[in-house]
Amino acid sequence: MKIPDNLKYSKDHEWVRVENDVAWIGITDYAQRELGDIVFVEVETVGETLDAGEIFGTVEAVKTVSDLFMPVSSEVLEFNESLNDNPEMVNKDPYGDGWIIKVKINNADDISNLLPAAEYEQLISSN
User: Fold this and answer.
1) What phi, psi does 105 have (nearest 5°)?
2) Measured in Å, how far apart are the chain's first and last C-alpha atoms?
3) Lower CB count within 10 Å: N or C terminus of the chain?
4) Range of the domain at 65
């Protein structure tokens, strides 16, 4: 299971890649494996500003639907439109082409509340 060191992680299994005040967000390799084959990704919050912990969308797998939680307070700038036709990219490449949203971070302090790779690995190994 991949847990890249250059990302930050939420306890809800979202990852965050930060570049200045913009971030890309997706779900972790662990989360996509737990969900199984993803058949639909829905995000209707583009243009909205959400607080950390708020729901920004859903991921539908063959057997379940799971909410997606905003890991940092931010404005949703963009949804990865390629997921409309290829939601399985979240399974195949969760940290690359399977990213879900791009956001503008409102509170940089929120990043310090996220887990580095080693702590995220401890979290999932205790499950």
Assistant:
1) -70, 130
2) 14
3) C
4) 14-118
